[in-house]
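USER: I would love a firmer grasp of how sequence relates to backbone shape in proteins. This is the protein in question:
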Amino acid sequence: MRKLRFLFLISFSIFACNQQQETKTTSNELSAEEKTDSTNIKTLFNAALTQGKSYEWLKDLTQNIGGRLSGSPEAAKAVIWGEQLMKEVGLDSVWLQPVMVPHWVRGEKEIANYTTNGTQKNVPICALGFSVATPASGVLAEVIEVKSLEEAKALGTKMKGKIMFFNRPFDDTLINTFSAYGGCVDQRVAGAIICGEFGAKGVIVRSMTNSVDDYPHTGTMSYGDLPEEKYIPAAAISAKAANILSDDLKQNPNLKFYFKQSCETLPDAPSFNVVGEIKGSETPENIFVVGGHLDSWDLGEGAHDDGSGIVQSLEVAYLFKKNNIQPKNTIRIVFFMNEENGTRGAKKYAELAKLNKENHIGGLESDSGGHTPRGFSIDANTANSTLLQSWKKLLAPYGLHDLKKGGSGADISPLKAENVTLVGYKPDSQRYFDYHHTSRDTFDKVNKRELALGSASMASMVYLMDKYLYADAPVKP
């Protein structure tokens, strides 16, 4: 026992010395101005972790309003909620931007099944956003399984009267699960365009997820330029059901699949972006946008997608005010409406910014869930990208190691221009697609500490961008 205690003390001493040496080395590498920045960033993290409000805001949004599909009564309630909350935080001004949004409704719970070897198997299924309904009696037809849009297109008229089954799974060798999603989502979005053209009766698609479970994932789809008479119903089945159906098709290629859904698209509905800002103290005409999207799919509560992004964005402003950080430029918080099935809010915001001749010099979007912070993707000119990457030594102590060029986010990307620096907040992606667009995207799946760390990460990036970025050229600390 004495020997074990001795070894433990030695190991602990080595660890402590290494930690002290690392802190000392990092401190010695910082300039005087960077040491000030390091202190301010630590203050932001301390405040978020001990006095943050994002978790209680998220609980209120998800538990008292729930899923917020564009055009729905819940989305309208969320607009009122967001406006009131921004006022409570004490932003200098708060207003609503009117925007007309799509209004698609799911209708009754979808049904799917098939019979093989005398056994009926029920299938977890959900309609895809913008899909048409099946006939009232449903759709029953033989199934053709394909792995890609190209494979489906090559079948041509052979798919007439059939239900097309797109079954390309995520590439599990990709560490970034958003890359895996990008490699599969085309079959969900465009499957009905190709299959409708050749007279298929319907489309079912494997859910967009790494998990093999019984939760179907919804998401938007399109009919492209197809005439309405060629629209066919489209739905997603769970990944587990997709594997089982694929195996059953090998044993019984002529089995018939049945599904029924009653969704419809109603006329566009009035809604709003919710906007609030802290006015800049030196150059208020320069604007940094920080935001996420207020709408969500209807199956769950929209907690990770994108309730987390909404509350983190507002907490950036809250942390600035809590710590008496007065930005030089105007910091504008935006809760965008209709990211999930149209990005109408983002387009309207950019349209009005151009019409009003507003000078946006940067933006930060959170729309990748509320998990542990990993870094930021950067969409900017070379000089500004290099500047942001130079802040890694300030951000890495908080787990923010990834500062890479890439996309920013669907809602701020319409602001893209040569001298506009756009950034996407990137938390760990490994669990995100367990919940994305499903009934499982609920408040209990969000960890309070991870959410607060994300708010502080975003606030730190906005602090640095506000201090060192300008519309014409970057200025190094």
About this structure: DSSP finds 14 helices and 16 strands in the chain.
